[in-house]
């Protein structure tokens, strides 16, 4: 347990909750896109140990309830995506709350809402957040809302890590749209979001902390190397092999006025959804310089040298270990526990 007097004794016992890629074969190539490699778990473990924490590992499989029921950790560093269902990201936080275990990151309610893209957009519309027009399709026979204008991007409504967003995810006519809807409904067995494609520049913004202490990092722009593509999208294949397809700039080459607008919008979204400790928010900047909210990830990936969140914080001067410490300390402060110096 906590010991704050002797520097030779770990200050906290921290558990890491996670899901691992298993190489499961599936018709959907991106079946395990949201899960982590053991290298990411070990990187977080090493960062926590560098803070003089004792670390325990908890894979969030079917016996996670019993594992957490028995544990005596002071705090969980949660990166678990959960296993099945629209509310899967809420599984570990809900169990942690049952047993009164502090944990990093957003709670089960925020995670459930945010994974559902349409529900998130409906809530944020009450805060006057601009987002592309969209429609949720539950069956192939559904009629398209006549207000939607092509081109349209098609994606599963409740997935992260660009699951279901392929290089050919944009439809220019009803024939292409029908094929994409059919493919996604069959592969992902869930409602599909059809959304107007916003032509323009793509950005992602990292936020850390809570309420009036929250920090919004400089927006990172995603540049596509193949400028001849008709529709550039941050697809699963692009993310998987990002060094081949894209390059990043942070801080982005935008005016201070646009940067301030984007950062203030990100913070408004973060607080509206009651995010905690850290999150990442995606935007498109239209050719008319309007900022469109695309989606939020309140449980962003932390793979070193790969995930956008630690990439942004590194561009802004934080090492990987400092980023992990920042997230942990944010949670410790929330629980009125002494932060790690």
UniProtKB/TrEMBL annotation:
Q: Where in the cell is it found?
A: Cytoplasm
PROSITE patterns noted in UniProt: ATP_GRASP, DALA_DALA_LIGASE_2
* Protein name as catalogued: D-alanine--D-alanine ligase
Keyword check for Hydrolase, yes or no: no
Q: Which residues form the ATP-grasp domain?
A: 121-329
Report the principal subcellular site: cytoplasm
GO terms (BP aspect): cell wall organization; peptidoglycan biosynthetic process; regulation of cell shape
Task: Extract the InterPro entries matched here.
Answer: ATP-grasp, ATP_grasp_subdomain_1, D-Ala_lig_Van_CS, Dala_Dala_lig_C, PreATP-grasp_dom_sf
A single Pfam family it belongs to is: Dala_Dala_lig_C
Q: Return the similarity comment.
A: Belongs to the D-alanine--D-alanine ligase family.
One annotated Gene Ontology cellular component of this protein: cytoplasm
- What SUPFAM superfamilies does the annotation carry? Glutathione synthetase ATP-binding domain-like, PreATP-grasp domain
| Gene Ontology molecular-function annotations | ATP binding; D-alanine-D-alanine ligase activity; metal ion binding
Q: Which species does the entry assign this protein to?
A: Clostridium thermosuccinogenes
Instruction: State the UniProt keywords alphabetically.
Output: ATP-binding, Cell shape, Cell wall biogenesis/degradation, Cytoplasm, Ligase, Metal-binding, Nucleotide-binding, Peptidoglycan synthesis
This protein's source sits in the domain of life called Bacteria
């Amino acid at each position: 347990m906590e010991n704050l007097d002797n520097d030779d004794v770990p200050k906290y016992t921290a558990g890491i909750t996670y899901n691992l890629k298993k190489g499961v074969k599936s018709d959907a190539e991106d079946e395990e896109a949201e899960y982590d490699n053991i290298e990411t778990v070990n990187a977080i473990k090493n960062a926590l140990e560098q803070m003089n924490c004792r670390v325990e590992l908890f894979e969030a499989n079917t016996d996670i309830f019993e594992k957490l029921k028995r544990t005596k950790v002071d705090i969980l560093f949660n990166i678990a995506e959960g296993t099945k269902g629209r509310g899967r990201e809420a599984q570990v936080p809900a169990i942690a709350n049952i047993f009164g275990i502090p944990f990093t990151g957003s709670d089960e309610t925020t995670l459930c809402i945010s994974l559902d893209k349409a529900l998130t957009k409906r809530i944020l519309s009450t805060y006057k957040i601009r987002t592309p027009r969209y429609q949720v399709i539950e069956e192939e026979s559904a009629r398209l809302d006549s207000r939607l204008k092509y081109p349209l991007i098609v994606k599963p409504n409740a997935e992260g890590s660009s699951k279901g967003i392929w290089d050919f995810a944009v439809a220019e006519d009803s024939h292409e749209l029908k094929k994409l809807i059919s493919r996604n409904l069959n592969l992902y067995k869930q409602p599909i979001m059809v959304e107007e494609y916003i032509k323009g520049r793509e950005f992602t913004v990292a936020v850390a902390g809570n309420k009036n202490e929250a920090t919004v990092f400089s927006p990172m722009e995603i540049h596509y190397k193949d400028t001849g593509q008709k529709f550039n999208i941050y697809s699963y294949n692009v993310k998987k092999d990002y060094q081949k397809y894209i390059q990043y700039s942070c801080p982005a080459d935008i005016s201070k006025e646009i940067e301030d607008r984007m950062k203030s919008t990100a913070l408004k979204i973060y607080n509206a959804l009651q995010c905690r400790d850290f999150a990442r928010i995606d935007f498109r900047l239209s050719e008319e310089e309007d900022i469109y909210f695309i989606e939020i990830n309140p449980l962003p990936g932390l793979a070193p040298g790969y995930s956008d969140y630690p990439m942004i914080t590194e561009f802004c001067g934080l090492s990987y270990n400092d980023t992990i410490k920042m997230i942990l300390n944010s949670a410790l402060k929330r629980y009125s526990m002494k932060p790690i110096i």
